[in-house]
Amino acid sequence: MRRWWHPAIWAPAVVALLVLAVVWQLVAARLVERGQTYLLPLPADVVAELVGSPGTYLSDAWTTLSTALLGVLLGGVLAAVLAVLLSEVPLLARAILPLAVVLNTTPVVAFAPALVVAFGFGRTPKVLVTAVVVFFPVLVTLLQGLRAAPPDALMVLRSLRASRAEVLLRLRLPSALPALFTALRVVLPLSVVGAVVAEFVAAGSSSGLGTLITTSAANYQLAPVYAAIIVLAVMGVALLGVVVAVERRVLARYAPGRR
């Protein structure tokens, strides 16, 4: 298996980014010639914004990232516990899953005002909105992984009169590890989106990349908006990279045949 530093791994992405930067420069320069600077900033202006105010972007990025991680922790733990319960009690699954589907199909922005009223201004409503965003993907993916335990191994454990707890700990949970990491690869970058959306719709904070984007857009300052978007993109890619690295190590140790 090729390592990440092999050119075949990183070269296509770098080329795509360079092409995107060139196209961005050409389009933005054309808009500047037409006097339409309000549509797209020049890449140089965005870079200057990032270089000129690194502390602001680092501070706001940490605010958004911490909100996202707290939301993943809350929503992920609740979803994991519920997935275990539903895998052990099929009747409960038939009762709960339709409600989870309704929750997932309801626009998350509809929850934000009610959460602000219930919990006040500050971080709590934003964490809860993020938790709602990540809850359903973790629940469904992990539940599928728990139900996908190898039938032969399950039959052997039952023939040995293993308890339900032993079957869960020795077979179902290790078998569900690939599904768990699949869910994390989805929800960690998604949690950043959830945190930013929460900062858009749940007022009460003067920091965070979502707040920075909203404030800058209201003042017709495009360079900070695009700078914040770039920071968010880097943040999402970094979170995905961390999950992939941890996944390889964990699966190599606890589920070597399921990587």
Automatic annotation (TrEMBL):
Record field: transmembrane: 61-85, 97-121, 127-146, 179-203, 223-246
Domain ABC transmembrane type-1 residues, every copy: 61-241
Localization terms from the record: Cell membrane
Source organism superkingdom: Bacteria
Pfam families for this protein: BPD_transp_1 (PF00528)
Keywords for the protein's UniProt record, in alphabetical order: Cell membrane, Membrane, Transmembrane, Transmembrane helix, Transport
Stored CDD domains: TM_PBP2
Main location: membrane
Protein name, as recorded: NitT/TauT family transport system permease protein
Native source species: Quadrisphaera granulorum
Cellular component annotations (GO), alphabetically ordered: plasma membrane
InterPro entries on file: MetI-like, MetI-like_sf
Lineage of source species: Bacteria, Bacillati, Actinomycetota, Actinomycetes, Kineosporiales
Protein family according to the UniProt entry: Belongs to the binding-protein-dependent transport system permease family.
